[in-house]
Specification:
Largest sheet: none
Helix content: 55-70%
Number of strands: 0
Shape: elongated
Order of helices and strands: HHH
Radius of gyration: 12 Å
Number of domains: 1
Strand content: under 5%
Length: 60
């Protein structure tokens, strides 16, 4: 999965920064590890992985 797919936006050399920021905040809330505090170990691990991926994608 590339970062455009992760953020569900069309591939572009200069993507709309407002849209990227909006998608980042949506995904950050969805995968934030604090929301999985009562989840299984597998759910917690997946949340950590996805949260890290979302952060890396946004920084790129």
């Amino acid at each position: 999965m590339n970062y455009f797919e992760l953020f569900d936006i069309a591939p572009s050399f200069l993507p709309d920064q407002a849209l990227v920021k909006k998608k980042f905040y949506q995904l950050s809330r969805q995968y934030h590890p604090d929301f999985y505090g009562n989840g299984s170990a597998e759910e917690k691990e997946k949340a950590l992985e996805m949260s890290a991926l979302v952060n890396k994608a946004y920084q790129t």
